[in-house]
Amino acid sequence: MSQARIVRIHNELLGTYGDQGNAEVLAFRAKFHGITTTITDVRYNDPLPTNGDIYLLGGAEDAAQLLSLEALQRGDNLDILHFAIERGAVILAVCAGFQIIGNKFWANGKEVDGLGLLDVVSVPGEKRLVGDIKTISTVLGFELTGFENHMGRTILGPTAQAFGKVVTGNGNGDGKFDGAISGNIFGTYMHGPILARNPELADLLLTRATGRKYAQITDPLALKYATWRRKVIK
Amino acid sequence: MRLKLSILIAKLAGTLSKRFLRKSGETIPGRVLLALYPRAISILSQNRKIICISGTNGKTSTTKAIVEIISKLGSVTTSASGSNLDRGVATALMTKSEYAVLEVDELHLPRVISEAKPVAVLLLNLTRDQLHRMHEVKRVADKWATAAKSAPDTIFIGDVDDPFVALALNSAVKPLRVSFGGRKHLDGAVCPSCGVYLNWSGNNYKCSCGLTNSNPDELFEAGTAAYRNATFANVTGKVLGGGAIAINEQALERSVDRDYNGVTANLRLTKNPASWTEALNSVSGNDVVLIVNSREVDGIDTSWLWDISFMQLSGKHIIVCGERALDMAYRLHVEGIEVELTSNFDEAILKFAKGSHLHVLAAYTAFHELVTA
């Protein structure tokens, strides 16, 4: 029996768009695979746990995003994340969280340095991008669905690869790609939450986090839900 | 075009749409009027006392309660239930009266304040809701604050236990700060005024920038949302010189009882995390129907279902229907709660034996369809 420690970073700040559900879906899918999980909620003033297997960040409003960034730059937190990446831990960062782990982003009208974990730069666009989104995942090779609600235009640097090729919606702003990946670091604009809409992605993260391959899960409702969303978003 | 003629045409449009399109006829007249005469709200508000009610939850029921109080002071016109955009406001103002008690959408409130110059504005609460349209809670609060600042003659009554409402009241020249002893806020981690991590101590907050719910002008006991709304109706009534009404929480809940061939149902409006949480606390029986839609007024995104814990429904007999029934079923599934899906409400009802009493928690559009059916 293997174990996965799920760390939900600053849910009180990065929980505005429902992304907290990603942790619940991971724990739920893990049960099918025989993986025991713990979910640790890290608050603004807490240090990050050093032994996390999956670190999660969600979407937020600007002021909350800046507070989360400041907290992650405080004390040993950034070192903890670097060390976690080195030992193969997974990071899934959505929307504001995706911007935070990049090199630079804008919030409250000014540019700030991000955590630099993912080679992307985000700038504000003119129009807010709101609506259903469908991509073809570059890692999984099949469709992912979600909902985007952001102002960001994200440009990938040479060491980041696009997370998904956009079928419907905007993603990083050019309508071509959504998110970015590098090793076990995943960034995306997809809410939904993304792991609820795409449970196979939860399985992939669990595989990456524990380093073990798992058999396919039979959960008809999860499959029905994911398939339906892929069908209705044209 | 002259205002009188515009009103005549607008009324005609309303009658036609009612008769031939079977619409409620509440938005068409206002829409036509504003198209023909853009300054109509401003002109029609002159020489009468306007009271506006806004907030994420409780607008409709609180408006009704205030109408009850104000109608003892003079003639009142009011918005039709839920018709709270600028066009709904314009429709309401077409009827002559001494007072107009208007339910106003959060984003439409600044326009209505600047044009109608209300004597009083009641701000109930502000929490995450329809984020595809509101985008951010703070964005709405900032718009309110700007509107409050530019209306120095208006009394702004509001619940300062909600930091976003407190922010708006801080900008008002004539604020009436009401507290119910503090309460947690789902979006309250950040100070909406200065952006620092908001300092909460239990249910109360006090920011270094001065934003706080302490030292209100009026302090009441804590209670349900319905009780708070009733209290606000009385506070607002008093400001206008009206007498208090008895607080009837049940009457103020956005809920209706119906009978479906021997199956009784309490229908309740649920449209965002705050109203869901309130509604879940009211579920006492074992038989539950949940209806989830995602049309414009419901919010076209359903991600927020994951902001709510439904554990209170664990072990109950639950049927889920509506356009986004699968979203709800999967959210509950992950919490360990299994449900049955039906393709519509009529089928859901058939799943319960005669004599059952159902709790029906319904999305905005579903609630309206059931209530008007």
TrEMBL record, chain A:
Residues 6-198 form the CobB/CobQ-like glutamine amidotransferase domain. It holds the Pfam family GATase_3. SUPFAM superfamilies: Class I glutamine amidotransferase-like (SSF52317). Gene3D superfamilies: 3.40.50.880. One of its GO terms (biological process) is cell wall organization. Keywords: Glutamine amidotransferase. InterPro entries: Class_I_gatase-like, CobQ_GATase1, GATase_3, Lipid_II_synth_GatD. Signal peptide: none annotated. GO terms for molecular function: glutaminase activity. PROSITE patterns: GATASE_COBBQ. This is Unannotated protein.
Automatic annotation (TrEMBL), chain B:
SUPFAM superfamilies: MurD-like peptide ligases, catalytic domain (SSF53623). Residues 53-180 form the Mur ligase central domain. This is Unannotated protein. Residues 269-367 form the Lipid II isoglutaminyl synthase (glutamine-hydrolyzing) subunit MurT C-terminal domain. InterPro entries: Mur-like_cat_sf (IPR036565), Mur_ligase_cen (IPR013221), MurT_C (IPR013564). GO terms for molecular function: acid-amino acid ligase activity; ATP binding.
